[in-house]
């Protein structure tokens, strides 16, 4: 498969229309249609369901879309790294879940962008399982993962900030009167938690013998809070992630016993880092040693 054709395919996926995609790509519509048809013939599958209104992806099309995004991102990252061997430029791709510890990372990124305005930053929101997979396959340069995880396949740096789990729920629930929330307090409420397997394992010990239902798993804390706002379920997430716009309806209470997750920066072992990646890593290491660079980054 030609990477150029994969870019064409992704443009059609985005526009859901050959004419609009061709205009975006600055190529003739018949040529684009032929390229996509040749790709389907090469793969032996139909990628789109075609009708007179708009295109829809087939199951095979969705599968290729995910893979094509990874291949194109890896190609772009590799090209950027090769082009930036002598100067600090290119694109830095970082994946992370939602946590206030990202302030540490964002401060470094802000300094880099101020000193090197040609640099591009891609922040990918994903849970730790997905971040690990993407760092491993090269579509992310660095990742920030939460929790005690087996990370022997990666280089790691532990951030000083820790994530404390809290329960978030509608103010009308009787739980609102409590200063802390125990497993027994939650035994009568359906739970919303993270999609990460290790989070579920962590809470298995915390629940003890209490019978708990966990019908909803979700990556994004804000979306989970919207469900908790309805007044029937309790969300378990990190402290500090309750959106201010939901303060009138929701409250957060710390768990008892307390549960914490570490924040760990990971990157792939045994690879040559670009100048930009080295800059980010060196500044991160300096910040962890307590060194401050108010004059900027050179």
CATH class of the largest domain: Alpha Beta
Q: Pairing-aware structural class of the strands and helices?
A: alpha/beta
Order of helices and strands: HHHEEHEHEHEEHEHEHEEEH
Per DSSP, the total helix count is 10
Name the beta content range. 15-25%
Distance between the termini: 41 Å
In total, the number of domains comes to 3
Instruction: Provide the CATH architecture of the largest domain.
Output: 3-Layer(aba) Sandwich
Low-confidence stretches: 291-298
Helix content: 40-55%
Total E-strand runs: 11
Mean pLDDT: 89
Q: What would you call the shape?
A: globular
Largest sheet: 9 strands, mixed
CATH H-level superfamily title of the largest domain: Periplasmic binding protein-like II
The rounded Rg comes to 23 Å
CATH topology heading of the largest domain: D-Maltodextrin-Binding Protein, domain 2
Essential attributes:
298 residues; alpha/beta; Arc Repressor Mutant, subunit A; D-Maltodextrin-Binding Protein, domain 2; 3 domains; two-stranded antiparallel ribbon; 10 helices; 11 strands; globular; disordered C terminus
